[in-house]
């Protein structure tokens, strides 16, 4: 183990399945893992997370020793999963932060369980802290954890990264627990968001709700005798993880042959604007019948959070829309939309990213969207990106073709534009996007968000930065 870093998140780098003696570790594919895993591999340490197992099924808590870091599992009971993950995290914070208050289901009981589970993670983390450990907590599932750790270990260095949007104060305070959540987060010393807008929304909430003066320019909050720094640093990926050779996915080739491919890769989440994408694609076909039979929307739609009614209903509605469009425009040998509703491994996704011509993202609200970065990093050939202007990454991908996801006309228009672009225009756009992805990579993110904090947490002589060198070096 190279460093003294303790990472904590709800989901970890893999899920654990099977019984004792025959456990299987399945790699998790998610934005958070794409970004945090390379960082943890680089600097080492411990990753504490839930691995998908319930206490009813097993009593054994696993510690898995990986080559470059250790993984420690937190088990949850069915009741905890329901109240903490499905109830408050994904039934209140998720829709509020994505500006969809109509999806919020408030419940005192769920919030009580959320608190209890945050306390549980804090207690478990406490047993793993050593002098000099940097505790790095991730995402909205664990907003109260910094407070609980601070209560018991007042000297502890704590960093927190919030991976989803942070909403305007008027929306955040629809829930009656806004004060406690903000105080929870202020238990950290350093808090990170993807964009300046989210950072500003958070600072305004602290100022208005807690009546604490904040410095917007410096991003500082003075609270309980501590200085808390609040930064905006968008996550970067590790490009080389997407540059490897990968096998072909034979089973989809038959439907793709000869087609211009518009690719979408999303969880079946109501924030992702899948219905809007389908409407926009249908509008394009309606206005441009010369493209019938020549283009396809290949949509990976990964089932997610299926115990929550809003998600189940959404998945059903999306599939109905696909069917309607296929019935309206398709025939026996051509269907305009192919929807793939299973989990895809990183290798399979890389294959799809390379196989497509254009990536199309129409999220209604999206913290960053790493799929856009992965698509660019995977390819040598220029590919076009059509991007919702309501994603965090839209601020970084200035040259992408932007759309308002609520406008089928705009989506249809940009689909047409992408088809009419010259190779030279595509190459120019792609080169600019690639430059962003390579420059603002995972190391850049780690360095800019955590840099100094990390140096303090690594054993002397193990971590250094050479004079004038921009890179982080973790050397044994
Ligand atoms: O940040 C968004 C997030 O909750 C991440 O933690 C995770 O990458 C993704 O959404 C998937 O969500 P879930 O863990 O609920 O399947």
UniProtKB/TrEMBL annotation:
CDD domains: GT20_TPS. The keyword Coiled coil applies. The keyword Coiled coil applies. InterPro entries: Glyco_trans_20 (IPR001830). Pfam families: Glyco_transf_20. One of its GO terms (biological process) is trehalose biosynthetic process. One of its GO terms (cellular component) is cytosol. Residues 416-443 form a coiled coil. Keywords: Coiled coil. One of its GO terms (molecular function) is alpha,alpha-trehalose-phosphate synthase (UDP-forming) activity. Transmembrane segments: none annotated. Belongs to the glycosyltransferase 20 family. PANTHER family: BCDNA.GH08860, TREHALOSE-6-PHOSPHATE SYNTHASE. This is Trehalose-6-phosphate synthase. It comes from Carboxydothermus pertinax.
């Amino acid at each position: 183990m190279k460093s003294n870093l303790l990472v904590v998140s709800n989901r970890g780098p893999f899920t654990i399945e099977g019984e004792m003696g025959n456990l299987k570790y399945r790699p998790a594919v998610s934005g958070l893992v794409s970004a945090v895993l390379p960082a943890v591999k680089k600097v080492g340490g411990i990753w504490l997370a839930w691995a998908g197992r319930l206490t009813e099924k097993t009593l054994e808590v696993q510690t898995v020793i990986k080559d470059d870091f250790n993984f420690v599992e937190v088990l949850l009971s069915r009741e905890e999963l329901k109240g903490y993950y499905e109830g408050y995290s994904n039934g209140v914070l998720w829709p509020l932060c994505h500006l969809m208050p109509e999806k919020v289901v408030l419940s005192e009981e769920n919030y009580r369980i959320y608190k209890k589970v945050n306390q549980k993670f804090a207690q478990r983390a406490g047993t793993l802290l050593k002098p000099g450990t940097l505790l790095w907590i991730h995402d909205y599932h664990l907003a109260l954890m910094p407070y609980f750790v601070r209560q018991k270990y007042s000297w502890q260095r704590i960093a927190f990264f919030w991976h989803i949007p942070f909403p305007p104060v008027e929306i955040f305070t629809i829930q009656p627990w806004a004060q406690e959540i903000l105080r929870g987060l202020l238990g950290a010393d350093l808090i990170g968001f993807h964009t300046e807008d989210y950072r500003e929304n958070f600072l305004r909430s602290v100022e208005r709700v807690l009546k604490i003066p904040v410095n917007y320019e410096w991003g500082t909050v003075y609270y309980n005798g501590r200085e808390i720094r609040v930064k905006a640093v968008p996550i970067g990926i590790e490009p080389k993880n997407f540059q490897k050779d990968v096998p072909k996915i034979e089973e989809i080739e038959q439907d793709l042959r000869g087609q211009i491919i518009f690719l979408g890769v999303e969880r079946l989440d109501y924030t992702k604007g899948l219905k809007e994408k389908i409407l926009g694609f249908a509008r394009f076909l309606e206005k441009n019948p010369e493209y019938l039979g020549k283009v396809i929307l290949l949509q990976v739609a990964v089932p997610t959070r299926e115990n929550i009614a809003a998600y189940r209903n959404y998945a059903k509605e999306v599939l109905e829309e696909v069917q309607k469009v296929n019935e309206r425009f398709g025939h026996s040998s051509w269907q305009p939309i192919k929807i793939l509703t299973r989990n895809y491994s990183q290798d399979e996704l890389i294959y799809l990213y390379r196989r497509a011509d254009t990536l199309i993202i129409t999220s209604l609200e999206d913290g960053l969207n790493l799929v856009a970065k992965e698509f660019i990093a995977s390819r040598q050939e220029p590919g076009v990106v059509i991007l919702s202007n309501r994603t965090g990454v839209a601020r970084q991908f200035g040259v992408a073709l932007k759309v308002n996801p609520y406008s089928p006309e705009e989506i249809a228009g940009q689909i047409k534009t992408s088809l009419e672009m010259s190779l030279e225009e595509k190459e120019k756009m792609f080169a600019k996007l690639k430059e962003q992805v390579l420059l603002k990579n995972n190391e850049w993110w780690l360095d800019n968000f955590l840099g100094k904090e990390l140096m303090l947490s690594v054993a002397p002589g193990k971590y250094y930065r050479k004079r004038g060198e921009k890179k982080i070096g973790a050397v044994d």
